[in-house]
Amino acid sequence: MPAKASRAAFGEALVELGAKDDRIVTVDADLSKSTMTAKFAKTYPSRAFNVGIAESGMIGLAAGLALAAALPDLPFACGLGTAPLLAGDVVADPLVPEGGVLPVRRPEPDPALLARWAVVA
Amino acid sequence: MANPDLAKLEAIARDGRVQILRMLTHAGSGHPGGSLSVIDILTVLYFGRMKYDPKKPTWEDRDRFILSKGHCVPAQYYCMARAGFFPESLLLTLRKLGSPLQGHPDRVALPGIEAATGSLGQGLSVAAGMALGLKLAGKSSRVYCVLGDGESQEGQVWESLMSVPKLGAPDHHLDNLCVILDYNGIQLDNFVKKILDLEPMIDKVKSFGWPVLDINGHDLAQIDKALDQAEATKGSPTYIVAHTVKGKGVSFMENDPEWHGKAPKPNEAIEAIREVVGEPVPASVQPILDELKALEKK
Asked: How high is the ipTM of this complex?
């Protein structure tokens, strides 16, 4: 199988899934050509929502859509790959919601990562 | 609704003011001003408008309610208790460690709460998502969202105000969404117009394509009529500007920024409740005054 960009595969898979389940929708903040949801929007225009460059409103909208049970869950979020702009992080595990709750805890720096990114004079 | 029982709603709202003052006094912290400004709106929504089943809070066909100004949730807790979502005795656990009645609503902790709010400015976008989801699912349920005026300074509110009137067009217009602004004119630090004035609010919202209704948010008949109009409006969501008085019903709290986020002391609560219920004190309220009096001695 020829290799392709993961976002291209994502965009195509989304179109395939959209045919099987009409509860699948996309919500975009003017990045549909980058995240490849544009194909879905073209195929299913009444289920694609572009709210403009307004990310916080978009996240709220997506949460409301999920809460209204239009979707079984909300597994995919994609954006510009800005994380690689950082050389690295000293904390290993990001906070991820579990059962709708963010488990609040102290982000513990990983000693190995601390050593790796230590500033050397 | 046709011919709402206004006398009954008045009595429920009056009782709501008593219970808000009572629970905040027991909690020793909280937000009386905005809870008292929004209680009439919530009374009409909970006891004359929304479809829900307190014994089955996740009933699919229920109407949805989001209190975006989440810090005023004591008013909603009162309505929920009265409607039968949980026993009224739970009201006195407000803000206590481990209670499902936290200072801001928590949908995981308390069935019947639709969204965790209180991080201001988020409720409208979530309500719009719900309205869209319900439309896509072919449901006739409606979504009601109460916004604060202070929180309307948040950018996220304006993102939604811009996009929501056209969102879902042409197949899924969000005419199942009704937004109500509790326009009491005061935020935490001071009067809204002294911090960051919203005016001309009606013109601004209209310019984004919303039909806007302008009402007195303490006039139950006006609230009910506006909700009728919103329900009859097809092809567009509705935005209701409800002019209210912060601390409404308690003269020493009314229109005073000091009472945004300060709980009354027992003697203050007794004075406030006496004013709300008038003379003579109803037999049902006297035990509450006695209970607060006992609290004073502690």
From this structure: 0.84
